[in-house]
Amino acid sequence: MSDKKKVEKELDQEEYFLTLDFDGEEVECAIIDEFEMDGKNYIVLLPEDEEEAYIYSYTETEDGEMTLDNLEEDEFKKAADFYMEQNSIDE
Fold first, then answer.
1. What's the whole-model pTM score?
2. Using CA atoms, how far apart are residues 40 and 17, in angstroms rounded to an integer?
3. Exposure of 18 by Cβ count < 10 A (0-12 exposed, 13-18 middle, 19+ buried)?
4. Cα separation of 73 and 57, whole Å?
5. In sequence order, what are the residues at sequence separation of 6 or more whose Cβ sits closer than 8 angstroms to the Cβ of residue 21?
6. Which of 3-7, 43-47, 84-88 has the lowest mean pLDDT?
7. Per-residue confidence at 57, pLDDT binned at 50, 70, 90?
């Protein structure tokens, strides 16, 4: 079962941000990166005033609305490892 989050994209000082709604509590996150793995799209977010990033899978509708899905522990680990491996290659 996926936990879907409502998100809102906005452009602020040439950086993209998403506002997550956790049951009425809004959390603004910087979009660190987006990547594809195994045919799925993922997004890496850094919440304001936190040091640990979030990784979600996402789908985007034709009108640009984005829906984030929580990852199960195994998928999260695989996505995080994939992301870290890709970034260490690029550096």
1. 0.74
2. 21
3. buried
4. 13
5. 5, 6, 7
6. 3-7
7. very high
